[in-house]
Amino acid sequence: MNGFIRSISYIFHPLFMPFIAVVLFFLKSPRYIPIEFIKAKLTALFLLSIMLPILVFYMLKTLNVVKHIHLKSTKERIIPLVLNCIIIGYLNYSSFPANQCIELHYFFIGVIFSTLSCLILAILKFKASIHMIATSGVLMFCIALSIHYSINIIGTIALMFILVGAIATSRLHMKAHSIEELIVGSVVGVIPQLILLKFWL
Fold first, then answer.
1. How many distinct structural domains can be found in the chain?
2. pLDDT by residue (tens digit) across 134-158?
3. Which of 68, 99, 100, 141 is 20 to 30 Å from 165 by CA-CA measure?
4. Which of 121, 144, 146, 118 is closest to 132 using CA atoms?
């Protein structure tokens, strides 16, 4: 059981959450989207939001800038968060412009604002949970999609709620965060997505 609880933090690492959000969007969107378009976007997303950050992480680890994949200290977080903002900004500009996917465009703007908020908190020596930021942001995006398209995706939303709870439990079990850090992480993940709804909902 201990191994299973710990594995949740690795399986649902924050790096994977934007990819999960985009896959959910393409699966649940009722409008027609060409399969070639979907493949191109998912390929770009996989390379830029998962593979590139992993390569950057190992480079930073080699340089002794970071020590652990979960970025356990606030000092370790600063450079990876700055680089992640740049990567997500470029990804959004190049692959998800507003005239192609307005929903995903503003989702990624929300991700950037959440990352910047986490960066500011790290500079202030507060370690908000990046896991909770990522999963809560995706949860809010799913709720927004349900409202935007007037579709019933209650099953997906329920699963996201369960995932948020499971990740919070895992992070507490691993003693990676306090309850306050988990709550702040959830707020930082949800608020930017909530504020940006007025631009596309």
1. 1
2. 999 999 999 999 999 999 999 999 9
3. 68
4. 118
